[in-house]
Amino acid sequence: MIKAIISTTINPPTEAIKRYDTMADWDLIVIGDLKTPDDYALDRGTYVPPPAQEALDQELSDLIGWNCIQRRNFGFLLAWQMGADIIATVDDDNIPFAEWGHDLFVGGDVEATVYDTELPAFDPVGATNHPNLWHRGYPLQLLPVRDYTVSRRESVTADVQADFWNGDPDIDAICRMQFAPDCDFDADRFPMASTVASPFNSQNTFLTRRWLSEYFLFPSIGRMDDIWAGYHLQARGAKVVYGPPSVVQERNPHDLVIDMKKEYLGYENNLRIVEAVRDDPDALLGFLPSEAIAAFDRYRSLF
């Protein structure tokens, strides 16, 4: 089985990337950007500088633009070309535990707690020992009515394994401003899943080759790029199962006001999206700017 780790970077190698670089049973692919130092190098793995990305597909490169995390889509393309069966997408501020990537259930069946809800979306963070928090991209209008009273244990086939993150979790700017949490998630709450769509990110997530062509980090929509990618994938039929924390996030510096501005499109549209895609997966396209749709079309044409 071929397994690939995909990350982006604009900085010299971080502690996290150095640790991923030592994992002999994984192929590390790091996608550079215009701000990445010219002398950037990995001890083991593949660094893809900007010219190599343009050589892979100039049209897609132009549509995505530069100095953005959506350059990671080129890593997905390369993972596909190299025949990867399992693809891990990680952020360079997530330091992996020693057991990271060892006991994966993605692509197979796993016994999970499955939550039933009549709401159009499920928030996995609220089902943990930090119930006051919520996942980035969860519709804020649903926060007062989250309900975790109905659940069952059953076997679930996981197309996506979205592992959690201790330390600074993936919450939105409003939640972070209010709580500024430092989390230690209870591993006994996992694995978990739901009968409805739920947000997952691209910072510590595993998916199977089958779904790679439909998983695309959309440019030009701020901090909803991976969230809407996840909602689209689930609307296409992929099942996400959340795994216990396998990294500690030591978050890169952020301006929370800027983050909030980049999340506003989601505050305004997340509820409408999860309602719309239940009946039509392509309904998401109606919420995207034209350049994002063009980039997605080009991306899918390359598989």
Task: Please provide a brief summary of the model.
The chain has 303 residues and is of the alpha/beta class. The protein has helices at 15-20, 50-56, 58-64, 73-81, 173-179, 225-235, 256-276, 290-301; strands at 3-8, 27-31, 46-48, 86-90, 94-96, 109-115, 151-157, 160-163, 166-167, 192-194, 204-208, 240-243, 247-249. It has eight helices and 13 strands.
What is the element layout, followed by pairings?
Blueprint: E1 3-8, H1 15-20, E2 27-31, E3 46-48, H2 50-56, H3 58-64, H4 73-81, E4 86-90, E5 94-96, E6 109-115, E7 151-157, E8 160-163, E9 166-167, H5 173-179, E10 192-194, E11 204-208, H6 225-235, E12 240-243, E13 247-249, H7 256-276, H8 290-301
Parallel strand pairs: 1-2, 1-4, 2-3, 6-10, 8-12, 9-13
Antiparallel strand pairs: 4-11, 5-13, 6-7, 8-11
